[in-house]
Each structure stands twice: as C-alpha cells, then as structure tokens.
Design goal:
heterodimer, A: 2 helices, disordered C terminus, B: six-stranded antiparallel sheet
C-alpha cells in the first residue's frame, strides 16, 4: 500500500493539470460568450452556392 | 406605400388577422401582409419596406440560403427593422476615435449594437458580412448582447457603407457604448469564473481525501496513511483559503478598517478559526481536520457571488443599451449649411434639423417648423402632440410629420433620456443583494457546527473515552454537511426560472420568485400597471363610425399619405374601400389638428372636432352627441366634414388587451392591490380603469417618468414597514426607472428595449396572463423552498443531536447525509412538477 505515497500526489497533479487547462481557457476568453457558439456550430462554414432560393432570378447565378 | 390596392381579403392589419382567413405571408419575414399593400402583379409580397429592402439585399448577394437556415433553426418571425437610416456621421473622425479601435496592419474594429437580432439565422447572415460588404474582414455576432464586432479595412470601405448594409439587412446598427467598461467587467467575470473553478476542484479533491479519512475511522487505517491524508487535506484546504478564498479575508479586512461590518466578516472569522483548529489538529496529530468542509463552503459561497456578479453586469448592459438607442448622427447648422455630424460634436446652442421619422438627437426648443412628435415611449402619452415654434422637445422623441429645426439646450447625459438612464442605473444598484441570505446562513452554520463539534468532543472525552469522542465527533461533522442547506434553495429557484421561461416569461434573478411568492391573500402586495402598451395594445383602432358610411373611402383617401397614428388607424380600418376612394387635391395638413383637401364632393376636411367646428359650422345633433359620448369615455373623436357641414364622426381608442380584465381580477384575488400609473391624460386612463373595475384612488394619470419613480419609491418606503412587495409592470422608456426601482420590475411583450433591460422579468408573450401564471408559480416555489429549508434544518438538528448522543456511527451518518440531500432535491423537483406544463 506504500504505493499510495506516489499515487495520491500523482492523482492530485493530474487534477492540477485539468485546473490549469481550465484557468487558461477562462483567461483567454473561451467562456466570455456561451450563447452564440452553440448556434454558430449548426451553421455551415461556406454558403453553398446552389440556387436553392425562390424564383425571380435577378441575382447572380452560379 | 401608396397602394395599387385590391381588396382580395378584407383582413385587418398585420398581426391582428383572424385565423382562417387566407393570409399572404411576407416573402422576407413570413408575417401576414396587410391587404392594402398586396401587389397582385408581383410574385414576392412584403409586409413593409424594411422587409423588401432586406430581401433584395440578401437575394442580390446570392445569400438566399438564409431563408433555409432560418426555417431550420428558428420559429420566431420578426419584420426587418432597418429604418433606412443614414450613416454619414459614422465616418467622422470624432466618431471613430470614440467608438472604434485601431488594430495592427491598418485595420479597425468596432462593436455595433444591432436592433432586431433574434435567432441563429441572424448569426448566419451577419457573419456573412464580408461577402456583402467588401472591405469587411470579420464579423462576429453575439446573440446574448445583440452586438457585433466588426473588423474592416478603412482604406477599402468606409464604416458608413458597412452600417448601411447592416441596416438594409434589417439590423439597424448603433455604436455600442462604453466598450472599455465592458472589457473591464469581462475581465472581472473571467477572474471570478477561474476562482470558482479552482475552489470547486479543491473542494472536490478534498472531499475525496476526507472520504478516505472517514472510512479509515470506521474501518481502521495505518497511522502513516492517516497522516498522509491529513497533511494533503490541510494543503488543499489552505490553498483553497488562500487562493479563491482570500477574497473573503480581503473584504473582511477592508470592512474592519472602515469600521463597518459586512457579511464577509463572520465568514472570514468562521473559515479562519476552522482552518487554525484544523492545522493545530494536524500538527499535533489529534482530533479532526475541518478542511474538507471549509473548501466546500468557499466553493458554494463563490458560486453565489458569481451569479450575483452576472446580474450586476446585466444591469450595466441595461444602461448602455438605453444610451445606444439614442441617435448617433444629426444634421447640424455649421456656417449657414446643414451638415451631418456625429452627435458627440453637438453643443447647447447649436441648431439641428430633424426630418419626419427621425428621433430628436438632444433636448431643445423648436425654432422653425411645425409638426407633431410621438413621445409615447418617453411619456406614455398614447397620442402624438403638436409642436410649433418655441415648444420644447426631448431627445428620443420621434418627429412624425414635417421637418423641424431645433435649438439644442442639453445634450448627451444631461438630456431627459440621459437623466432617466442614470435613474435606472441607481435603481438597479439599490436592489437588495441576492446571496446575502445564503452567506449569512453559511457563516453561522460553520460557527455553530465547529462549536458543537468542540463541545461534543470535550464532553465525550471527559465523560467517556477519547476514542468514543472521536467517533461521535466525526459522525457529527459528516451529518452536518451544509450541502442540502446551501443547494436546495438555489436549485428550486433555478427550476422555477426554467419552468417560467417555458411559458415565455424570462426571469433574470431568483429574488423575483422570492418576492412575488411572498404575496398571498393574507400578505398583500402592490402592483402598479402602466396603461399604454401594457394594459392596452398601445395602438389606436377605429372602434366606431357614426354618420354616412359612404364617406369611408373619402376618409381613407384623405389620410392615405399621412404618418399620424390616427391616420394610420383609419387607413388600416378602411383599406378595403380603397377602390372607391375619390381622387384628392390640394391636401393641406394642419399639424396636430387635421387635414383639409379638395375632391369631387367639394371642400373636405378630417380632424379634431374643435378644429373642424371652425370650418364646418353646421353639425347635426346626433353627431354632436356622438362626439360628446366618445370624449366622455376617453376615446378620441375625429370628425369628417364636407362643404362646411360635419357629416360623420369616428371614435378611436387604444384598445384594452383582451385578457386585461381577467388578469386583473385574478391578481386581485391572490392578494395583489393593482393600481394604474400612466403618463397619458386623465380621460383615457380613467376609461381603462373603469373597465378594469379600479377605483379612481387606484388610478393616477399624467405622470412623468420621475413621478412614476416617486410613486414606486413611496410605495416601497410604505411597504418596507409592512414587508409588502412592490411590483411595477410597464413597457416604455418612461417606465424604465420605475421598473428598476421596484422590488420586481416586469416588462411586457413589445416594450422598448430599455424597459426590457431595466426590468427583472421580461414577458415574451403578448398579454397579461403570463404575469398571473408567474405569480402562481412563484407562490408554489416559495412554498417548496420553505418546505425544503424545514426538512434540511430538521434533519441537521436531529442528526447532530443523535450523533452527539452517540447513536449515529460514522457509517450510518455517511449513508444518511446523501439521503438527506436527495430528499431535498427530490422535494424541489416534485414540488414544481405540475408547474410549467400547459
């Protein structure tokens, strides 16, 4: 059971790494805005240039 | 908007269309198109000019996918709110220096507050800005704050063009105010989030260690492991106290130095004493360590503070948004010519020109022109008022009819709107702090528990053995975990807020629920209701036509071109008579009185009865009676005259919401004393009060925003003695200060953004029924919270006594504790289970 003297500090330093990661994320502004990114992720990156729109083709065609 | 109109379906205007009538949806926003402006030869139909421009812009850039994205992601439909504004002032140096930031490589960045942002598709569209406006490199929209950060190259495109593009898309931009304060508060919030997370991690790990120690007490543990865990627990505990927890010590110190006491003093004392006792026990290798409880306490307290800080940020945003909506540019007289300049350059003494449809940029006096202005948002008056040379106008009022020149008397923060904004700010910062109750309970909780544990240990050591003392003290410490106490209330509140939002009522803070729920038939509360826009629809409708119905097409024709709300109501009502409308010549508008014109019937006029009486001396008796009857009931009477004779009388009314009477009755039955506070004149206010069954004593009219604030503050001062809740319900900028000052401010559907931002509750569905539902939900919630506190307190008292009596072993305690937490949580969930389902 003496391994506990190694394992407990090891477990705690793993936790410390997670905390450090969170602190970095928070300080670099990852949690400043949590309303828009979940929505933004639903949107496609590039607008597909298909003519999906309604008629009256006065705009540009692909 | 002049109609090549046919009357395919005689539907009333826009959103009032009854179900069952075939509606033509707007090609852009999907709302029904008023029958009068349907263009039969065109394939695409629009409900307003804003939507047409937005559609043309989106379609012209090949971004039709917007409509697919929107249909996929959102049910909401809003017409485009672009006002066709001009943005030349956005290019002025003064403007850019104030609002924009320089970036490296010659780029510039600005935060713009956008009107009309409501759903995911808006994110899609606004972030396609680089395709729509060349020169824009990046656009990021934040839904929460409705603001977009835009990075552009000033060499390639001026800001005015970007702003105009946004406006055409239907998002009228305004520069977001005081972004530096915003940055500072963002940094503060990041810091708090970090501290809370660190405290949480330390608390979690410390509880794991404590578990090993408790298990060891029961099951036996080698002394070297016990001391390992005790030392680690102490290390984590001190870390938690010195890093995230130092805020309590710092606040307590500064409070003591200022010779005052705040809640941080008992908290700091409690955790300080606990930590010292724990350290002594670790060093002397005896007794218990308290560090697990201490770290959890620090964590819970920080969670409470984090929530509170977010609320305060909302308050700051409220004020900024209010200021953002004042116009940013104006045409000011410089060297004999009117030039467009940003509003910041305006000084008292300048002369500005305000065209119809524009907002007043500053307070001032009219120095030439005559028009009528709509002050409804600022004062609550339902009718526009006429202004002429010498009359004073206030910033934020809308000019309706003709161009005015105004000599500026006050600008910026010293205007009426600016002063109102400060009142709102004050009202919000005076609000009671939310977590005080939890803070206090937690502070005393730990003092009591440490004292009880010490006494218990001393008593058992003296009367029995040290081993028995350790056993019973450990049991006591486990069963007295503050989790149930500290979590039950916030959890119940959070559940209630979630339930309310499912019904379309957005609640900004838990204290709303506490306040509303405390009112019952035996403990009355006072509710002040605004009239225009809250009890009524805030929109005039023609309710009666007395006289020759053959003149209806004439009324339509005379008013077709006017901007006045009365004219709009008449045009909307009689749009289906448009095909029979006679041709009109020599139309002359007398601002604030009426319109005179010529047509094949002869000289015709339409306007206020008093004005018309001069032109049409002859008036039949029954029409005179109709005018008197209408005015007695608080309606607005309008007369139609042909050739010096009055031939018809219309009456118009700002209609009561359909559920207003029922809602008022329901509120009165559940202990609310409802009263009407209105900025409108006495006639219409009394008419509304009568229909609601309110006494004249409960009705106040012609109130300025400051008067409303005074009423609310007075009621609060009275109420404080008797612990009566004071609630304000309103919709306009004129209500904002009162909303902020009231114990609970409720902004109703369709209100001004400033009112929404200043209020604690925003009702996103039309009508007053949601408010009734909210009060009943709140009552239920408060009942559940009290029940939970009682359970938790009874449990703690009982368990601590049993542990002290030595009946509860550490194992039984370790099983009991989670059961107690679960009971309380289950009580919260099931107590509210019936609520929120329609």
């Amino acid at each position: 059971m003496s391994i506990l003297f190694l394992m407990v500090p090891a477990a705690l330093s793993l936790a410390a790494i997670a905390v450090a990661a969170f602190v970095w994320a928070a300080r670099s502004g990852q949690f400043d805005e949590v309303d828009t990114p979940p929505v933004r992720m639903l949107l496609d990156d590039e607008p597909t240039r298909k003519t999906a729109g309604p008629p009256t083709p006065s705009g540009d065609d692909p | 908007m002049t109609a090549t109109a046919t009357a395919k379906n005689p539907s009333p205007p826009a959103d009032a269309a009854p179900a069952g009538v075939a509606e033509t949806p707007c090609h852009h926003c999907g709302l029904p198109v008023p029958a009068a402006i349907i263009e039969p030869e065109s394939e695409a139909q629009f409900c307003c000019g804003g939507c047409r421009v937005a559609y043309d812009t989106i379609h012209g850039c090949g971004l039709d996918e917007y409509y697919a994205v929107r249909d996929r992601l959102s049910q909401d439909r809003l017409p485009a709110s672009g006002g066709g504004g001009r943005y030349a002032a956005y290019d002025a140096q003064v403007f850019l220096e104030k609002h924009a930031r320089r970036l490296p490589e010659g780029l510039t960045s600005i935060d713009l507050y956008l009107e009309g942002v409501h759903c995911a598709a808006c994110v899609w569209l606004v972030e396609r800005l680089p395709q729509l406006a060349p020169g824009v490199l990046d656009a990021r929209l934040s839904l929460a704050s409705s603001s977009a950060r835009i990075v552009w190259d000033p060499q390639q495109t001026p800001l005015s063009r970007i702003a105009a593009t946004l406006d055409r898309l239907g998002y009228a931009p305004h520069p977001a105010r005081s972004s530096s304060a915003g940055d500072a508060s963002a940094a503060r919030e990041r810091n708090q989030l970090t501290q809370m997370a660190v405290a949480g991690a330390l608390a979690g790990n410390n509880m794991l260690i404590a578990l090993a120690l408790y298990a060891g007490v029961f099951d036996g543990i080698e002394p070297r492991f016990a001391s390992l865990f005790r030392w680690i627990s102490m290390g984590l505990g001190w870390l938690s106290l010195l890093w995230p927890g130092r805020v309590f010590f710092r606040n307590a110190c500064s409070a003591l130095r200022a010779r005052t006491a705040n809640l941080d003093v008992p908290i700091a004392l409690a955790i300080g004493v606990g930590a010292l006792a724990g350290t002594a026990n670790v060093l002397l290798n005896r007794g218990d360590v308290y560090f697990d409880s201490l770290s959890v306490l620090v964590f819970l307290l920080l969670v409470g503070r984090f929530i509170q800080a977010r609320q305060q940020r909302w308050a700051g945003d409220a004020v900024n948004r209010m200021l953002s909506l004042t116009p940013t540019a104006c045409r000011v007289l410089r060297g004999g010519e009117f030039t467009e300049e940003p509003i910041e350059t305006l000084e008292p003494g300048d002369t500005v020109e305000v065209r119809p449809g524009e907002l007043m940029p500053a307070d001032g006096d009219v120095c030439s022109g005559a028009s009528s202005i709509d002050r409804s948002l600022l004062t609550g008056e339902s009718l526009p008022c006429a202004v002429a040379v010498g009359d004073a106008v206030v910033a934020g009022a809308q000019n309706l009819q003709a161009t005015l020149r105004v000599r500026v008397t006050a600008t910026g923060e010293s205007t009426r709107v600016g002063r109102l904004a400060r009142l709102v700010e004050q009202g919000l910062s005076d609000k009671p702090k939310l977590v005080q109750f939890t803070d206090r309970i937690a502070g005393w909780f730990i003092v009591v528990i440490i004292a009880a544990a010490g006494l218990n240990f001393a008593a058992w050591s003296a009367l029995a053995s040290v081993a028995a003392a350790i056993d019973s003290t450990v049991a006591l410490l486990i069963v007295a975990c503050p989790c149930a106490l500290g979590l039950a209330t916030p959890l119940t509140m959070a559940l209630a807020i979630g339930r309310a939002s499912r019904r379309g009522v957005l609640v900004k803070s838990a204290h709303v629920i506490e306040t509303l729920g405390g009112v019952a038939a035996g403990r009355p509360g006072r509710m002040f209701l605004d009239k225009t826009g809250t009890l009524t629809l805030g929109r005039l409708r023609v309710v009666d036509w007395c006289g020759d119905p053959g003149l209806q097409p004439l009324a339509f024709a005379i008013e077709a071109e006017s901007n006045h709300p009365i004219a709009k109501a008449i045009v909307a009502k009689y749009a289906d008579t448009a095909p029979q409308a006679p041709a009109i010549d020599d139309r002359a508008e007398a601002h604030g009185y009426g319109v005179a014109a010529e047509c094949d019937l002869g000289d015709v006029a339409l306007g206020s009865p008093r004005w018309l009486a001069e032109r049409c001396p002859s008036i039949p008796h029954h029409l005179l009676a109709a005018i008197e009857a209408a005015e007695k009931r608080g309606k607005t009477a309008v007369a139609v005259g042909v050739n010096r004779e009055i031939r018809a009388v219309l009456s118009l009314e700002d209609e009561l919401r359909s559920d207003a009477t029922a809602a008022n009755d329901a509120l009165r039955h559940t202990g609310w004393a409802t009263e009407v506070l209105s900025g409108d004149t006495a006639g219409p206010v009394r008419a509304v009060a009568q229909r609601l069954g309110l006494t004249p004593a409960a009705t106040r009219a012609s109130l300025s925003p400051e008067d409303k604030l005074r009423c609310v503050k007075g009621a609060k001062a009275d109420g404080d003695n008797q612990q009566r809740a004071v609630v304000m319900v309103g919709d306009g900028v004129n209500d904002a200060a009162a909303l902020a000052a009231a114990d609970v401010g409720i902004a109703v559907h369709g209100g001004a953004e400033a009112a929404l931002a200043a209020a604690d509750v925003f009702v996103s569905k039309p009508g007053l029924r949601p408010i009734v539902q909210l009060t009943s939900l709140a009552r239920r919630t408060v009942w559940v919270v009290r029940q939970n506190l009682a359970i938790s307190l009874a449990y703690n008292t009982l368990a601590v006594s049993l542990a002290a009596a030595g009946v509860v072993t550490p194992l039984v305690a370790a099983i009991l504790m989670p059961i107690s937490s679960a009971t309380v949580l289950a009580g919260a969930v099931y107590g509210l289970a019936g609520e929120g389902k329609n």
